[in-house]
Amino acid sequence: MTENRNDAPRVTLGTSDLAVSPLALGGNVFGWTADEAQSFAVLDAYLAGGGNFVDTADVYSAWVPGNTGGESETVIGAWLRSRGNRDEVVIATKAGMHPEASGLKAATIKRVAEQSLRRLGIERIDLFYTHRDDPQTPVEEIVTALDELVKEGKVREVAASNIGADRLAESLAFADREGLARYVAVQPHYNLVSRDTYEGEAADVVAANGLSAVPYYALASGFLTGKYRPGGAEVASARAQGAARYLDQPRGPLVLDALDKVAAVHGVEPATVALAWLAARPTVAAPIASARTVEQLPPLLASVGLRLSPEETALLDEASA
After folding, report:
1. Where does the NADP-dependent oxidoreductase domain start and stop, copy by copy (predicted)?
2. pTM (2 d.p.)
């Protein structure tokens, strides 16, 4: 069994009883840019470093030639079995974006949940997200299907990713009115160079209803690590193109400069500061960050213990506005 720290900090997701680490480990790289051995090593190191919150999805990594989707879940399931640590880990997965099971019709949600349970080799999914909203399906059908999975004991808590403020509010109101399982968290695209994708109406609905945010792209596809610079050397990464686009945005270089200044004061890497800023935002419980190798983990885990001063936060706020 993998050893982990008993004194590691935990935060509670929304109105649930899920106690998770303030940094979630993204599983999108497992079975993609990280093979099984690398993935096991990263998962071991994350748990040993105090983490307990692993995020995946049925669609990871269907975009890779030769893959069919579910590779990440399969790797995580094999790791759980080999380590015998199921009770130490909060597993989050998602439904709705797999090319062969897209949308959120009730039958699709239930079928995908069963498939994820089999791949993960577990009896209950701790946190089950709708991966993106399906405007063609009424919220009543979606929420009712999720509630049935909770009642059947196959899902512990439910959440939503990539959902607009209006549909989120409508879903919560229906769940409350009918006494059904309600979302406890949202997973938005949110980071220092992408604030308008969450701040505003969506964040207001989350705050008003006691939900938590678990942002993805927390490091902007790696841009906020500081590896991508104007005129800098090309970085060998599957995400290089996505990260480099932020250099063309006015705030990109400004944010990097602010990160450098704050990181130098604390003797940490820019990624650590970027994650610490995000974790301290209103409603945010745990940013998601992925690591392809064990060597990439320390600056991510270091964010949990970093507290920024009001002046440092203001500097980053201004650069990213």
Report:
1. 22-320
2. 0.95
